[in-house]
Amino acid sequence: MKRSLEQITCIESEILKQIRAQPGISRISVARQLKLAPSTVGNYTSRLIAEGFLVESEKTEFESGRPPTAIRLNPAGGQFIGVDFEARNLMAVAVDFSDRPLRHVHKPIQKSDSAVEIIRKIEQAITELLPDKLSRLLAIGVGVPGLVDPAKGIALHYKYIDQWQNIPLAAPLAARFGVPVYLENTVRSMALAELWLGQGRGFKDWLCIGIRSGIGVGIIAGGQLQHGADYRAGEIGRWLCPGLSRTAAKFFDAPPSAVMELQEIASARAIVAAIDRARQAKEKSLLSGQSDPLTFADVVRASSQRDRLTVQVVEVAADALGWAVGLLALALNPSHVILAGPLTLLGETLLAPLRQRAEEILRAAGGSVPAIVNSTMGEFSGAVGAAALAVDAWTPTR
Question: Are residues 159 and 146 in contact, defined by beta-carbon separation less than 8 angstroms?
Fold first, then answer.
């Protein structure tokens, strides 16, 4: 049976995915996994080897008879670039064909930066990460904050960047760099990083809550990243939390019992702003005498020293996040909830009260309590996830 170019590309892409998931797999095993004839898989893997995408070697352990040939990704097969940004920072990483990180770039985003200036910084970051002449760039993934239309390659809206609305990103970047460009929501990029390389690896149903300037959740169900009917799945930052306690209200310049959005209480940006307001109001704190603008690194430092004001604000944020985790767990029944972003640096100061609040909600409702853990992937997790997006979406061409 003669196959079309589209069918051939699809088969080769699936072969690469099988080998990426199981390095050292044999042709026979790939054929079994894909339910294809061994001769068919042999023909396509031979082409992929000739094209420089795969390498082969004899397995060191085998039963009697001829040793099977192990097939692996060729690190020199090409490179992928992942870009991830939010209101204050842009991170980018280059990975080789075997997913090994090679180079990374960090660029700060200023509050005054326009959409045009941020696009320019994205282009600069990609340019700085381009492979040398000995390798080739295959695809680019971009994690975009807020609402995204991945199918059209358009960033729809993000409230924390001025004039960030209906921005075409994929097509201009593809034209500039001459490779396919894939877009995804930045929190879903974080979830992809956890799915491929982090704490979600090997699990089928779990959540990744990304907390930076805003808050969102990447939903993995049945081992697949979920988008929703129009790519809005996981937009929990706008959820309205229960009324603030009197203690919490003073930190957020609001009346007691005020109803506020989750991201205005529990994001990294909201925590810094709350502590800064209290500091300016002469609340006693280790940070009171600091003349420089407050940063989240200052919050982490003060938290590690058990500064009373900082711990109080973090506990308010943890309570709101625990409420959100409880509701998400009741609705989606995940086995794990992974927190990603700078709040992970707060360790148990955040996690302990967060877990307590979530458990109270779940036990009262008879729900299962998931494992709630911090990501261990660091600040470039979103960029790694964006690179994983490019790796997963890219297909070899004839």
Answer: yes
Would you say 380 and 189 are in contact if contact means Cβ atoms under 8 Å apart? no
CATH of 206-374, one of 1.10.10.10, 3.40.30.10, 3.30.420.40, 3.10.180.10: 3.30.420.40
Q: Count of CB atoms within 10 A of residue 19's CB?
A: 23
Query: Which pLDDT tens digits describe the chain residue by residue (398 residues)?
Result: 677 888 888 999 999 989 988 889 999 999 999 999 999 999 999 999 999 999 987 654 555 555 668 999 999 999 999 999 998 899 999 999 998 999 999 999 998 999 999 999 999 999 999 998 778 999 999 999 999 999 999 999 998 888 899 999 999 999 999 999 999 999 999 999 999 889 998 899 999 999 999 999 999 999 999 999 999 999 999 999 988 888 889 898 889 899 999 999 999 999 999 999 999 888 899 999 888 899 999 999 999 999 999 999 999 999 999 999 999 999 999 999 999 999 999 999 999 999 999 999 999 999 999 999 999 998 899 999 999 999 989 999 76
Task: Determine contact, residues 227/199, Cβ cutoff 8 Å.
Answer: no
Task: Please state, as a whole number, how many other Cβ atoms lie within 10 Å of the Cβ of residue 346.
Answer: 24
The CATH code that applies to domain 77-198+381-393 is 3.30.420.40
Rg (CA), the chain: 23
Let me know if the fold of 5-73 is the same as that of 206-374: no
**Strand, coil or helix: 70:** strand
Pair 153, 180: CB distance under 8 Å: no
Q: Where in the chain are the domains?
A: 5-73, 77-198+381-393, 206-374
182: nearest Cα among 171, 193, 192 = 171
Helix (H, G, I), strand (E, B) or coil at 321: helix
Q: How far is C-alpha 49 from the chain's CA centre?
A: 31
Residues 6 or more apart from 194 whose CB is under 8 A from it? Answer: 200, 201, 206, 208, 218, 338, 340, 375, 377, 381, 385
**Multiple choice CATH, 5-73, 1.10.340.30, 1.10.10.10, 3.40.220.10, 3.30.70.920:** 1.10.10.10
